[in-house]
Write a structure and sequence with these properties.
about 725 residues, Helix Hairpins, 6 domains, seven-stranded antiparallel sheet, five-stranded mixed sheet, about 35% helix, globular
């Protein structure tokens, strides 16, 4: 019997360690949280029943998440622990009773807060200034990701007001749910596998060696705890949350105090009702003893505090009928199967459609038309078919086959060797063209007002637009009478809307290079890669003739493994790779790993696949025709580093934007950059102007203190005239 327990314990340790690596290091979970927790609890039970089989290296005695060799490691000043968790309200009551036994006769007020499903982070502030950011790692040592964390706009580089001489502030870095949906939509469009959840996508983002990639992901953060605190300590958790707000640190907006088990469970249920409204994913509630004195008295086990516990919500799922599987055509021609569902309410909204990604995914899950399926929202945002209720089949269900022809244009659909995605290769396919025009006009590209999917479709149907650049040939007489309705119920676009669209098109000609690279829908070149390419080239002509992109492709070929080479041939390739690696480092197109032993051990800021795709596109007939038309329309996009109009009144000036304005801040920031100005996140002596909208806070105080010129929106607009 003991032998069976020993074998099972060893098996469980190996399984859990494997899943820890997948979850924390690879950001690619192999099982659900619930399945992981079941393995962990079984191991903990067996180890408690057989203490002689215990080990200090067991996953029950360590904090999950190792450190990455690409980053410098840093030790936490106070160890970071993880929380014990439960899915049971009864175990919440047991947790409270355990604390009461350890503190007999004491009243133990509790706080109930959202459990943000993010990446644990510890920030060190010294003299109020951010000096270091470290991931949890193994609880003692983590990855130093300071430069990446500095790109997160909501995290202040300097705390507001009176601050301790030294403090470790702890919380979670998360990927907002809307951003997660955007990233996965882009991956679907490119025929790539979707990310599993926002937490792992955030973890993968923080591991990027180039902070520009991190900045483009729009990560957020929430803080709620501290490690080392040099100076006066708060008396309670609620008081510390007030300190965080005073320092302008981002915190959760939801917190409840509970004086009893009943009140705690009521708060947990209340949080469960509203958690889908938060911008971040919340997979549970965290209960803590509010008094910090009581926290110290209760102490901790080797891994977790005795004064806190996480209650985890069951994943919200719903069963419904799969009516049909339709196929939509993306802007790159990728055919994506979509589940058409009987409408069902799940995770805060009614779901009637869910992407099925590709034919392989459908086959793997054995999804058939007519099945009863289980629906869940990935990241509480993206509806997904989790599994099929095969036990409810009655024989009427039908297998799905990807169409051999594009459903929009009828042309043959093809699957390139080695690829999962099926594509329509007809460049004149109306569905592709509609998506291309929508992409061209979207906020993350050229932000062309009044050009939505309905207008794009009508322009294409009327033969007015056959490629996105045809938009620049449109006249008021083409747009104003455009019928967006039907012949029976006409609805014209109108002169006012037409004027706005033409004005937005004219404005787009001055937008920076990266936006145009993104708008052109070059395969493999999304917003992040577009920024990277633009940062290394002065203008579009330089990108089209880029030696940097060609060098990246060549370096990849030189370093590709080839067992058939002689020793002399391998040495020759190594020397060539060394020289090319050094060249790319000097150009700023590569970063070098701390552990690199050779110049060729570099990470190019632009991947070889994207580099090759960009070269191929610019060398194609479509690319050459695009450059010719840019000349015709007077479009000469330049990199933000070089785009500094000499006549601009804000050229070379540094702005900070705060408060509520008439347009999104990023939109105004792009306008400033396009005119040669700079935009930073915090006010300093080098700031020229603070653009302050309504409800401006600490940045306004800091600007006043430093004598920085403060502009309201009206004054800012006058500067641009």
């Amino acid at each position: 019997m003991e032998n069976d327990s020993r074998n099972r314990i060893l098996q469980l340790r190996a399984l859990i360690e494997r899943h820890n690596r997948l979850y924390y290091e690879d950001a690619a979970p192999g099982i659900s949280d619930r399945e992981y927790d079941a393995l962990y609890r079984e191991l903990a039970y067996l180890e408690s029943a057989h203490p002689e089989l215990g080990s200090e290296n067991s996953p029950t005695q360590t904090v999950g998440g190792g450190v990455q060799q690409a980053f410098k490691q840093a030790r936490h000043l106070v160890r970071m622990q993880s929380l014990d968790n439960t899915y049971s309200e009864e175990e919440v009551a047991d947790f409270v009773r355990r604390m009461q036994r350890l503190l007999p006769g004491a009243e133990i007020p509790l706080t109930v807060e959202p459990k943000v499903d993010g990446v644990a982070i510890s920030l060190l502030y010294e003299g109020g200034k951010l000096t270091r950011a470290v991931t949890r790692g193994d609880g003692t040592t983590g990855d130093d990701v300071t430069e990446n964390v500095r790109t997160i706009r909501t995290i202040p580089h300097e705390l507001a007001g009176n601050t301790p001489a030294r403090i470790e502030i702890r919380g979670e870095v998360y990927l907002p749910k809307k951003e997660f949906a955007r990233v996965n939509a882009e991956r679907d469009e490119a025929g790539l596998p979707a990310y599993a959840n926002p937490r792992n996508t955030a973890a993968g983002t923080l591991k990027q060696l180039d902070s520009r990639i991190v900045a483009a992901r729009n990560l957020g953060a929430v803080f709620y705890a501290f490690g080392l605190l040099a100076g006066e300590n708060p008396a309670t958790q609620t008081e510390f949350m007030q300190w965080l707000e005073r320092w302008k640190m981002p915190t959760g907006t939801w917190l409840r105090l509970a004086a009893s088990v009943e009140e705690a469970i009521t708060a947990i249920r209340e949080l469960g009702e509203v958690r889908h409204e938060f911008v971040y994913e919340t997979d549970g509630a965290v209960l803590k003893a509010d008094s910090l004195d009581q926290q110290r008295e209760l102490g901790s086990t080797n891994k977790a505090p005795r004064w806190a516990m996480a209650y985890k919500y069951e994943p919200e799922q719903a069963e419904t009928k799969l009516r049909d599987i339709t196929v939509q055509v993306g802007r790159t021609g990728v055919l994506t199967p979509v589940a058409e569902l009987e409408p069902v309410f799940v995770s805060g909204s009614t779901v009637s459609r869910a992407t099925l990604h590709n034919e392989e995914e459908i086959a793997r899950k054995d999804i058939r038309i007519g099945d009863t399926v289980v629906i869940e929202k990935a990241g509480e945002v993206i509806p997904a078919v989790v599994k099929v209720r095969a036990d409810l089949r009655d024989g009427s269900e039908r297998e799905f086959k990807m169409p051999e022809h594009c459903p929009a244009c009828g042309e043959k659909a093809v699957r390139a060797e080695g690829f999962v995605a099926v594509r329509c290769v007809n460049l004149h396919c109306p569905a592709q063209l509609t998506r291309l025009v929508e992409h061209f006009a979207m906020r993350g590209a050229l932000d062309i007002e009044n050009l939505g999917d309905k207008v794009a479709l009508k322009l294409i149907e009327r033969g007015l637009v056959r490629s996105p650049l045809d938009l620049f040939d449109l006249q008021l007489s083409d747009l104003a009478p455009l019928n967006l309705g039907t012949d029976d119920e006409p609805h014209t676009f109108g002169e006012k809307n037409a004027q706005k669209l033409l004005h937005a098109l004219e404005r787009s000609k001055t937008l920076p290079l990266w936006r145009w690279l993104h708008a052109l829908a070059i395969p493999e070149v999304g917003a992040v890669t577009a920024r990277e390419i633009a940062a290394l080239h002065p203008d579009l002509a330089a990108v089209a003739d880029s030696q940097i992109l060609r060098d990246i492709v060549r370096l990849d070929a030189l370093t590709a493994p080839n067992k058939n080479l002689t020793k002399e041939e391998r040495e020759s390739l190594k020397h060539q790779a060394d020289a090319l690696g050094e060249k790319l480092l000097r150009a700023g197109a590569a970063t070098k790993s701390k552990a690199a032993k050779h110049p060729r051990d570099v990470n190019t800021t632009i991947g070889p696949v994207a580099a090759k795709a960009a070269i191929t596109w610019f060398d194609s007939d479509e690319g050459r025709e695009t450059l010719n038309r840019f000349e015709k329309y007077g479009i000469r996009p330049a990199s933000e580093e070089t785009a500094s109009p000499t006549g601009s009144p804000i050229s070379g000036k540094t702005f900070v934007i705060t408060g509520t304005l008439s347009e999104p801040r990023e939109q105004i920031a792009e306008q400033i950059r396009s005119l040669g100005g700079k935009v930073t996140g915090s006010v300093s002596k080098s700031t020229d102007y603070l653009l302050a909208g309504g409800e401006a806070g600490s940045k306004l105080e800091k600007a006043t203190e430093l004598g920085v010129k403060i502009l309201d929106e009206g004054e800012f607009r006058e500067m641009l005239v």
